[in-house]
Amino acid sequence: MNQKRERHFYTLAALLHDIGKFYQRTGAKIQNKDNEQFTKNNGYWHAAFTAEFIDEYLDQKFIALRTASADHHVAVDGIVKNADFYASGHDRRSEESYQQEETSSNYITDRMYSIFYVLFDIKNNKPSYINLSSQSNYFPSIQKEFANLDINSAKEKSKALYKKLFDEMTTKIKNIKASSYQELHHYLYPIIKEYTTTIPSSTYNVDVPTVSLFDHLKLTAAITNCLNNENLSKEKEFLIVEYDLSGIQSFIYQITEGNNTKPYVARSLRTRSFYLNVLCDFIAYKIAHAFNVTYENILYTSGGRGQVLVPNLINSSQILQDLVDEITKEIFKVHHTQISFSFASAEINSEELMNAKFKELIYGDSRKMLTNKAQKFLPIITKSPELFNHTPLKKSCTLCEKHEAPKGDFCEFCNQLLKLNDVLTDDDKEVVVVEFDYENRANDGIVTFKFGSLGQIIFHHQISEKSFRSNSYYLTINKPIIGEVKYYAKGNTGGKSFEQIASKSQGDPKLAVLKMDVDNLGWIFTKGFKEDTTTISKVLTLSRNMDFFFTKIIRDITNLDKFKGSVYIIYSGGDDLAIVLPASMVLEFVYEVNQRFSEYTNNNSIHLSAGIEVFHPKSPVRFAILRANEELDNAKRREGKNAIGFLDEVIPNSKLKDCLNEVDYFIKALKNKQISRSALYNIYQAIMVSLEHHDSETAYQRYIPNIAYSIARNIENKELFNKLKTDLIRSNITIDDLQFYKIVYAYVLMSTRGGENNE
């Protein structure tokens, strides 16, 4: 067996080693008695089902996987056996518990708990469960499946659900046409991920199971890839390499906005953010490629950050240093000082991996910085000073003004970005496949970005037998086809310009930039889990769940009927988003996102804050984004955060529903001519001027007589008169009240400007 085949052979053996748990829970029976050899002491029947699975659903040319994968409980030693032991960590159980699990009905009916349930004070958290589904339909539920059924009925219904999911998975697996273990791995990995992400890995004697079968299979395969090396360090077998991208904001928004470029701004913004996400994946897989590991070893990539688990070899330090130098140099050649990566690493041994030392190593002081953020270009200056020789551009790109544009108005890079935008927004082409090629081979891709000796990023609509290269890594967007699978929140405005999107706003045709992110994210990751229970699997599950919300769930929200065709996503992923949409929709959109996030996490300690800026569609969007950032900062300065910054004021998220109700009430009052715009504007003006004073409540008192007189004279509707009197004509009004009503009245005036009630 050659080395490449050996790597993917053992990777597949590890990836499938516990797939028998899935098969077993369908209620199936072992058909091939020879597979009972993989059981032990009348237990570990799932290992026999793993062998049965490989017998039935994989091509017979791969039958050698059966023993390597299924014997992890009966073998005296072996790579997969050891990897499984390490991956199970401090949840490692006795042989007796496995036997008890497989004779209990609960292992079929039990479900995972949401990872958010175990964060912080679990006693005060409300439980939510992960019911069986494919990953693309993943969403926690407060209702546990079969909670009201007797155990026998629940068991039978659960078997049927497992079988339905299992049949969907195996139908796709049987359609794989692979000629090698390496090719099989490319196509099998995304299917395993799609169908095992909601299945609990272990249930018996685990009070609150949160680790999915997929996470256990993935980590076992990642560890197997590390252990399958002859040159491992004897003290610290593993190395976690992490990186961080700098320059995200400046790169995305560094677009020259003028009459010639305005039609291209919307197309370029969205694609620039997507490009950076893919570039971060490209770096992660370059690290994996350098250490000869696979998809499973990418622990996390999102939001400009990534972590990769690699073997700690005798010469790892040199490999890493050469790799960092090469990445720094080649990225500089393309992007100069605009974007850069910083790198760090942490050594870890099997004991630390097993005994929940992951958080301590990743967030503690034991990390080794491979680059200095304050001197990030020093290696280039030292080793390749010629790259800093500046030659004035003969004809600069009118869109980015960073590169030469020898043909036409735009440089080659910007042209490629615009072409990529067309690929991403082509609704007739459902799938986008990204290929990471580190050998710089000729390709038939639609769009290609080249990075010198690093390799190239190639975009395809599909991968044919002719275009498939087993030595590449693949990323499929929004559908499990080949390689890793990620979701991309691309919005739903198609090729519309910002002016066209603004025209969908009621009243004043303006746009709003919305910035949102998770409050206290670092605190959640470092303090959310109990010190002695922070395993790699839990941290990765939390990371993936956060990213899934900001990619898949946000995309689902934008596709609701009330937002269709109106939401332009600049970026959404990791733990934050930046969105442009019609101004009259922004508060309702924020409310919808908050509601879905609250349902998704079901944990009051985890919440979002938002910043909003309204702007004219012909104004530079980058300035509006800067203002939205300032508004977001204002919201986060509020005690407890969990708030919205808008119009230089802050209101808590808990008041947003009341705010929308008030907006709706006054829009109807204007429509029914119960109040004039001028009367409403006078009240708004009084509130706005009052809030400019240090003592806003006292300042507002001066306006109360005038407002009281105005409403008494102009408001004939008794209900409206009493409402305004109760809301505004009182001495105990607070700054919070004034901020609330300022936002309400401003939003109403904006949403009705230009209408028939414009007085």
Write the layout of secondary structure elements.
Layout: H1 3-15, H2 19-24, H3 45-57, H4 65-70, H5 79-88, H6 95-103, H7 106-109, E1 112-113, E2 129-130, H8 151-174, H9 181-196, H10 213-227, E3 238-246, H11 248-253, H12 262-290, E4 298-302, E5 305-311, H13 316-335, E6 340-348, H14 350-354, H15 358-363, E7 368-369, H16 378-383, H17 412-424, E8 432-437, E9 447-450, E10 456-460, E11 473-477, E12 484-486, H18 498-502, E13 511-518, H19 521-527, H20 536-558, E14 568-573, E15 576-582, H21 586-601, E16 608-615, H22 621-637, E17 643-646, E18 649-652, H23 656-671, H24 677-691, H25 696-701, H26 704-714, H27 718-728, H28 735-752
Helix pairs in contact: 1-9, 1-10, 5-10, 8-9, 12-17, 20-21, 23-28, 24-26, 24-28, 26-27
Question: Could you give a quick summary of the protein structure above?
Answer:
The protein is of the alpha+beta class and 759 residues long. Helices cover 46% and strands 13% of the residues.
Percent of residues in β-strands: 5-15%
The percentage helix is: 40-55%
Please provide the count of β strands. 18
Shape: globular
The averaged pLDDT comes out at 89
Q: N-to-C terminal Cα separation, in Å?
A: 83 Å
Give a verbal description of the structure.
- The chain is an alpha+beta fold and 759 residues long.
- The strands form four sheets. It has a six-stranded mixed sheet with strand order 14-15-13-16-17-18.
- The longest helix is centred in the middle third of the chain and has 29 residues, at 262-290.
- The termini are far apart.
Which tags fit this structure?
759 residues, alpha+beta, 6-stranded mixed beta sheet
